[in-house]
Amino acid sequence: MERTGIHELSAAYALDALDGDERREFEEHLTHCAECRLDVASFQEAASALAYQVEVAPPPPALKDSILEQARRERSNVVPLRRRLALPAVATVAAVAACAAISLGVWAATLHSELGTRPEAVPLTGASGSVIVTPGNEATLVVKDLAPAPAGKTYEAWVIQDNQPVRAGTFGGGGQVAFPLTRKVPEGAIVAVTLEQAGGVDQPTTDPVFATEPV
Amino acid sequence: MARDLAHLSDEALVALAARADDGALAELYDRFGHVAYGLALRVVRDPALAEDAVQEAFLTIWRSAARFVPERANASTWILTLVHRRAVDVVRREQPRRAEPIEVAPQASANATEDEAWLRLRRARVQDALRQLPDQQREALELAYYGGFTQSELADRLGEPLGTIKSRMFAGLARLRELLDTGSEEERWNEPEFTS
Question: Which positions in chain A touch B88 (Cβ < 8 Å)?
Answer without folding.
Answer: 16
